[in-house]
Design brief:
5 helices; de novo design (two linked rop proteins); mainly alpha; 145 residues
Length: 145
Protein backbone atom coordinates (compact mmCIF):
# COMPACT_ATOMS: atom_id res chain seq x y z
CA UNK A 1 0.00 0.00 0.00
CA UNK A 2 1.12 3.46 -0.81
CA UNK A 3 1.27 6.31 1.71
CA UNK A 4 -2.07 7.62 0.40
CA UNK A 5 -3.84 4.43 1.57
CA UNK A 6 -3.18 5.31 5.20
CA UNK A 7 -4.60 8.79 4.58
CA UNK A 8 -7.77 7.24 3.14
CA UNK A 9 -8.13 4.99 6.17
CA UNK A 10 -7.90 8.00 8.47
CA UNK A 11 -10.34 9.96 6.30
CA UNK A 12 -12.97 7.19 6.29
CA UNK A 13 -12.51 6.08 9.88
CA UNK A 14 -15.61 8.01 10.99
CA UNK A 15 -17.59 6.92 7.93
CA UNK A 16 -19.70 3.88 8.75
CA UNK A 17 -21.21 1.77 6.03
CA UNK A 18 -22.87 -1.57 6.52
CA UNK A 19 -20.71 -4.48 5.45
CA UNK A 20 -21.89 -5.94 2.17
CA UNK A 21 -19.13 -8.31 1.08
CA UNK A 22 -20.69 -11.14 3.09
CA UNK A 23 -24.09 -10.90 1.36
CA UNK A 24 -24.82 -13.89 -0.90
CA UNK A 25 -26.45 -11.59 -3.47
CA UNK A 26 -23.33 -9.41 -3.58
CA UNK A 27 -21.07 -12.44 -4.07
CA UNK A 28 -23.27 -13.84 -6.87
CA UNK A 29 -23.52 -10.44 -8.52
CA UNK A 30 -19.75 -10.07 -8.37
CA UNK A 31 -19.47 -13.48 -10.06
CA UNK A 32 -21.87 -12.32 -12.79
CA UNK A 33 -19.98 -9.04 -13.27
CA UNK A 34 -16.65 -10.86 -13.64
CA UNK A 35 -18.23 -13.43 -15.98
CA UNK A 36 -19.72 -10.64 -18.13
CA UNK A 37 -16.37 -8.82 -18.26
CA UNK A 38 -14.73 -12.00 -19.56
CA UNK A 39 -17.59 -12.92 -21.90
CA UNK A 40 -18.06 -9.44 -23.38
CA UNK A 41 -14.34 -9.19 -24.09
CA UNK A 42 -14.84 -12.06 -26.57
CA UNK A 43 -17.83 -10.47 -28.33
CA UNK A 44 -17.28 -9.38 -31.94
CA UNK A 45 -15.99 -5.80 -32.14
CA UNK A 46 -19.34 -4.15 -32.91
CA UNK A 47 -21.14 -5.93 -30.07
CA UNK A 48 -18.22 -5.59 -27.66
CA UNK A 49 -18.51 -1.80 -27.63
CA UNK A 50 -22.31 -1.61 -27.67
CA UNK A 51 -23.98 -4.61 -26.09
CA UNK A 52 -20.95 -5.71 -24.07
CA UNK A 53 -20.42 -2.24 -22.68
CA UNK A 54 -24.07 -1.97 -21.68
CA UNK A 55 -24.03 -5.39 -19.96
CA UNK A 56 -20.91 -4.48 -18.01
CA UNK A 57 -22.42 -1.13 -16.99
CA UNK A 58 -25.65 -2.79 -15.84
CA UNK A 59 -23.74 -5.31 -13.72
CA UNK A 60 -21.77 -2.49 -12.11
CA UNK A 61 -25.01 -0.58 -11.49
CA UNK A 62 -26.56 -3.65 -9.86
CA UNK A 63 -23.54 -4.02 -7.56
CA UNK A 64 -23.88 -0.38 -6.54
CA UNK A 65 -27.58 -0.90 -5.79
CA UNK A 66 -26.82 -3.88 -3.53
CA UNK A 67 -24.34 -1.78 -1.58
CA UNK A 68 -26.87 1.06 -1.39
CA UNK A 69 -29.73 -1.24 -0.32
CA UNK A 70 -27.60 -2.67 2.46
CA UNK A 71 -26.64 0.79 3.71
CA UNK A 72 -29.87 2.77 3.60
CA UNK A 73 -33.19 2.99 5.39
CA UNK A 74 -34.83 3.22 1.93
CA UNK A 75 -33.96 -0.41 1.24
CA UNK A 76 -37.36 -1.29 -0.23
CA UNK A 77 -37.18 1.43 -2.89
CA UNK A 78 -33.61 0.53 -3.81
CA UNK A 79 -34.45 -3.17 -4.13
CA UNK A 80 -37.30 -2.33 -6.50
CA UNK A 81 -34.72 -0.43 -8.58
CA UNK A 82 -32.43 -3.46 -8.47
CA UNK A 83 -35.30 -5.57 -9.80
CA UNK A 84 -35.50 -3.30 -12.85
CA UNK A 85 -31.75 -3.41 -13.46
CA UNK A 86 -31.76 -7.21 -13.29
CA UNK A 87 -34.61 -7.31 -15.82
CA UNK A 88 -32.59 -5.05 -18.13
CA UNK A 89 -29.64 -7.44 -17.80
CA UNK A 90 -31.89 -10.35 -18.84
CA UNK A 91 -33.13 -8.39 -21.85
CA UNK A 92 -29.58 -7.53 -22.94
CA UNK A 93 -28.51 -11.17 -22.53
CA UNK A 94 -31.33 -12.23 -24.86
CA UNK A 95 -30.41 -9.57 -27.41
CA UNK A 96 -26.80 -10.78 -27.34
CA UNK A 97 -28.03 -14.31 -28.00
CA UNK A 98 -30.22 -13.17 -30.91
CA UNK A 99 -27.37 -11.30 -32.61
CA UNK A 100 -25.01 -14.23 -31.95
CA UNK A 101 -22.56 -12.21 -29.90
CA UNK A 102 -21.54 -15.12 -27.66
CA UNK A 103 -18.43 -17.01 -28.73
CA UNK A 104 -19.13 -19.90 -26.36
CA UNK A 105 -22.37 -21.85 -26.77
CA UNK A 106 -22.72 -22.14 -22.99
CA UNK A 107 -22.09 -18.48 -22.13
CA UNK A 108 -25.72 -17.42 -22.61
CA UNK A 109 -27.03 -20.31 -20.52
CA UNK A 110 -24.59 -19.63 -17.68
CA UNK A 111 -25.20 -15.86 -17.67
CA UNK A 112 -28.98 -16.37 -17.73
CA UNK A 113 -28.83 -18.93 -14.93
CA UNK A 114 -26.76 -16.56 -12.80
CA UNK A 115 -29.14 -13.67 -13.49
CA UNK A 116 -32.28 -15.68 -12.70
CA UNK A 117 -30.69 -16.78 -9.42
CA UNK A 118 -29.98 -13.14 -8.60
CA UNK A 119 -33.60 -12.23 -9.39
CA UNK A 120 -34.78 -14.89 -6.95
CA UNK A 121 -32.47 -13.63 -4.23
CA UNK A 122 -33.60 -10.06 -4.82
CA UNK A 123 -37.29 -11.06 -4.67
CA UNK A 124 -36.65 -12.80 -1.35
CA UNK A 125 -34.96 -9.67 -0.02
CA UNK A 126 -37.88 -7.54 -1.23
CA UNK A 127 -40.37 -9.86 0.52
CA UNK A 128 -38.49 -9.80 3.81
CA UNK A 129 -38.06 -6.03 3.64
CA UNK A 130 -41.75 -5.52 2.82
CA UNK A 131 -42.80 -7.80 5.70
CA UNK A 132 -40.63 -5.90 8.19
CA UNK A 133 -41.84 -2.52 6.97
CA UNK A 134 -45.47 -3.63 6.80
CA UNK A 135 -45.69 -2.69 3.12
CA UNK A 136 -47.78 -4.61 0.62
CA UNK A 137 -45.67 -6.87 -1.51
CA UNK A 138 -45.53 -5.54 -5.09
CA UNK A 139 -46.41 -7.98 -7.83
CA UNK A 140 -43.75 -7.75 -10.56
CA UNK A 141 -46.23 -9.16 -13.10
CA UNK A 142 -49.03 -6.63 -12.56
CA UNK A 143 -49.18 -3.43 -14.62
CA UNK A 144 -48.34 -0.19 -12.89
CA UNK A 145 -51.25 2.09 -11.99
Amino acid sequence: MGPWAFDLLILFRGFSMAAYEHLPIFKKLMDLAVFMEETASRFPRYHKYTLGSELRMLCHRALALVVEANSTAERYRVLLGLRLVLERIKIHLMIAREVRAYQSPHAFARATEMTVDLCRQNEGWIKSTAARAGKPEPNPRSPRP
